[in-house]
Structure formats: structure tokens, C-alpha cells
Design brief:
The protein is an alpha/beta fold. 26% of the residues lie in helices and 15% in strands. The protein is built from eleven helices and 16 strands. α6 (186-198) packs across α7. The mean pLDDT is 95.
């Protein structure tokens, strides 16, 4: 969310994403379905909440055991789910997947889930061989030595568009960038090193202790990471340029989103990003871990440069895309999603009672198992080790700096009850005490 200029970043150059926001609608309160990747990707494909799917951690997950036992969870996108790709294919669309999949092994790859074409989609969460070729990745033939992965994936995406320019197509371009390892685009590194040297160091600490041996980085200044953001942005722009070059721009909808918040918090002082003014980052239920950049361009329908403050979540994309394409809804499939079409047309609101998150696992960022709920301006996080809660008013405190659970116990109880009721309704799995834990 904070890595983009249209959301307030002062460090990374990203004119293409800012331009996309100028041509479409920017959601200020767009949320990933989970604070880590695989569950959110499953939510996108299925229209269901990760807790309902029992895909609650990145695959295969962190197996550490502390006060609570590390739970088992579903390790793939079930073939019984009728994915958005299958829905589009059923309607006559050519379907292509390029990039990161991370939803199970070979029997569950994109070509088994509705995609005609799968390029680079496999079981891995990051580029196995790194961002420079040889990438050593399944379903991607290595390019020339030194080829940078975002450029290669954009080339593959443009090839798919070119091949299907005369028919309806659904393309899911899922850049591995920006994900560890942090490997700079070499041609841009000197530029960002100079930016860092010239920037005025912000007042205050560089890292803030979040407890559980976790340190949150307070501002952006990582030169290598800056090059990666720009490289991803450049290559989004190249794909959009191909759409325009082929004369398809007025009949192509573009959705830009992310699968979790930026990596700004780790057990040591070495995080490479910062989500300020949001608190926390990837793996946590503070806003920095779940609020993400979300932009929708729908030529002739969405007013250029629009801004929407309506809270929305990953599952909403499935019913939205069906309605955009003039297809019938599949309410038994995308049971947790709401169509954004009325919001995009500025004709209606979602009228959703609340948004929910469920991450019952420990994470390498220092996160402890927890759940969260947002209802209007109010946000509550419940920590499963001791079931204590924190309550925040996001309208007046977007940085979640003032816990109001003690001063507003009625609201805390109301949201806690709603969260517990929701967990029961979706059959969310809860962790159990670790009998071997000695403190």
C-alpha cells in the first residue's frame, strides 16, 4: 500500500502505477484476504475466505511450535473449487496465467484450475534461482544469462495478449516482485543509492520494537528494494502499453492488487520496506500487513482519477469480474465476495457488516496467531495465545497507535462477539495449546 506514489510513497519512482490510478479508481481501503500470500491467492481464485477453504498460511507454512501448536492446513487449491479462470473459460475466454502461483503441487497447477496457458506458475513462493536468469524455475525456460524476471514475465504476458487479441481473454499476471530475495535491478541501483544519500533522514527511530522480538521499520530507504518496485512498475506499464498498441485499451479492464502488505517487520533490524503511516507489515493483522494497493481501470465506466474509501477484500474480485463480463453470478462459489460494480459506477455501496481475517499461525516476521475484524471505522485484533484484544478507531488513528479496548469495552465486546460468530459460521480452525511448551 505504501510503496506507491499514489498512496504516498516518497522513495520509489513508479509513474506507471500512478498513471493507472489516474485512469481508473483507487481504493484507499482495499484489503488482502490474508496477511500472507497463498491464502489470499486462494481467495482470489475461489471467491471464498481462506478460513472457509482452510488454506490459512503460505504453503507449506512455518512449522515452528511455541505456546500454541502449529496447525495443519490445506496445502493446495482444491480442484473441487470452480475458479474464476474456469468461469471465464466456460464463457469462451482464452485464459492465461503468468508468474507466481503458490497454490499446491503439480496436480494443482494453473493448467488444472482453468488456465489454458501456464508460464512460471508452480509450487514455489519465490523465484527459486533468483531474479536473474538462470531462474531455475519450473514452467519457465531460462532466458539469456542476466535476464531480469519482471521483464521476462511481462514479455510472456504480452505474448499471450498478442496471441489472443482477436478473442476475449482473461490474463492473470502475477509478478514475483516484490518478494525476497531482494535483488536490485542493477541499472537502477545507482539512482536509488543517490536518492538515499540525498534524502533527509526522518525524525525518530529507524526501527520500533513491536514485541515478540519483532522490529518495525519506520521509513523507506532501501535502494535495492526501490529498484525492484520500479522494475515491477515499469513492466506493468509495458503490458498496458501492449494493450494500447493492439487497439484493445477501450475494451480491456485492468485490476491491480496485491496478496499481502509490505515486508516491514522482522525479528531483527533488517526489514527492507516500510508501510508508514500504517503499522506493521506482512504476516501481521495491523493495517500494514493487510491493506494493499488496489486500482481498477474500466474504460467508459469508471471515472478517471476516482478515489473510493469503501472497504473491500480479495474475494470481491470474482463476482465483480463476472458482472463486468456480463456473466451470471455463482453465489454458491463466491460466497464470501461482493460485486464492486455498483461501487465502481458510484451508484451504490457494499453495505457489508464487517471484514474478517484469520491467521492462526506463527510467522517468521514475529506474528503470533490472531484474528481480526473491521466494522466501519472500528478494527479489533484478537491474539490467540491469551485471547486478549486490541481495539482501534481507524478513522482517527490509521496508524493503530491507541488501543481503546479498555476505554471502550462495549465496542470491544461487540466486535469480539462478531468475530467469534463469524469463525463458527465459516468453520475456521483454531490452534490448540502446545503440551511441550515450557515458556
Amino acid at each position: 500500500w505504501a510503496d506507491f506514489g499514489c498512496y504516498g510513497s516518497q522513495f520509489s519512482d513508479k509513474a506507471k502505477s500512478e498513471g493507472l490510478a489516474g485512469e481508473g479508481m483507487k481504493f484507499t481501503d482495499g484489503y488482502a484476504a490474508c496477511a500472507v500470500c497463498s491464502p489470499t491467492r486462494a481467495a482470489l481464485m475461489s471467491g471464498k475466505h481462506p478460513a472457509r477453504l482452510h488454506i490459512t498460511d503460505w504453503i507449506p507454512g512455518n512449522r515452528s511450535r511455541k505456546k500454541l501448536d502449529q496447525m495443519d492446513f490445506v496445502q493446495q487449491m482444491p480442484l473441487t473449487e470452480f475458479t474464476i479462470a474456469e468461469a471465464m473459460k466456460e464463457a469462451g475466454y482464452a485464459t492465461g496465467f503468468v508468474g507466481k502461483w503458490h497454490l499446491g503441487g503439480k496436480d494443482y497447477y494453473p493448467d488444472k484450475q482453468g488456465f489454458d496457458v501456464n508460464i512460471a506458475g508452480n509450487h514455489s513462493g519465490g523465484p527459486k534461482g533468483g531474479y536473474y536468469s538462470p531462474h531455475n524455475m519450473e514452467n519457465l525456460v531460462d532466458g539469456p544469462d542476466g535476464e531480469y524476471l519482471p521483464e521476462r514475465l511481462a514479455n510472456e504476458a504480452m505474448g499471450f495478449i498478442e496471441a489472443n487479441k482477436d478473442k476475449p481473454f482473461y490474463l492473470q499476471l502475477s509478478h514475483y516482485t516484490v518478494h525476497s530475495p531482494v535483488q536490485a535491478k542493477k541499472e537502477l541501483l545507482a539512482k536509488y543509492q543517490a536518492k538515499k544519500a540525498a534524502m533527509k533522514k526522518p525524525a525518530g527511530q529507524e526501527y520500533v520494537d513491536e514485541g515478540t522480538y519483532a522490529w518495525n521499520k519506520e521509513y523507506q530507504d532501501n535502494a535495492a528494494f526501490g529498484t525492484m518496485v520500479e522494475a515491477m512498475d515499469e513492466n506493468v506499464g509495458r503490458v498496458l502499453g501492449k494493450v494500447k498498441e493492439l487497439g484493445l485499451e477501450d475494451n480491456t479492464i485492468v485490476i491491480f492488487a496485491s496478496d499481502n502488505g509490505g515486508q516491514s517487520i522482522l525479528p531483527s533490524k533488517r526489514a527492507w520496506g516500510s508501510n508508514r503511516p500504517l503499522r506493521g507489515g506482512k504476516g501481521w493483522h495491523y493495517e500494514g500487513g493487510i491493506r494493499v494497493a488496489t486500482i481498477v481501470k474500466w474504460p467508459g465506466v469508471v471515472s478517471a482519477g476516482g478515489v473510493c474509501n469503501e472497504p473491500m477484500m480479495t474475494m470481491d474480485f470474482y463476482p465483480t469480474m463476472l458482472e463486468m463480463a456480463g456473466l451470471k453470478a455463482k453465489p454458491q462459489q463466491h460466497v464470501d465476495g461482493l460485486s464492486l460494480v455498483g461501487v465502481l459506477k458510484q451508484k451504490s455501496r457494499l453495505n457489508r457488516e464487517a471484514l474478517y481475517w484469520h491467521y492462526p499461525h506463527y510467522h517468521g516476521s514475529g506474528h503470533r496467531p490472531s484474528g481480526a475484524i473491521r466494522a466501519g471505522r472500528w478494527k479489533l485484533i484478537e491474539f490467540f495465545e491469551d485471547m486478549r484484544v486490541e481495539l482501534y478507531d481507524l478513522q482517527s488513528d490509521i496508524g493503530e497507535s491507541k488501543d481503546l479496548s479498555k476505554t471502550n469495552p462495549a465496542k470491544a465486546k461487540e466486535l469480539t462477539d462478531m468475530l467469534h460468530k463469524w469463525r463458527a459460521e465459516v468453520g475456521a480452525d483454531m490452534p490448540k495449546p502446545n503440551p511441550k511448551w515450557k515458556g
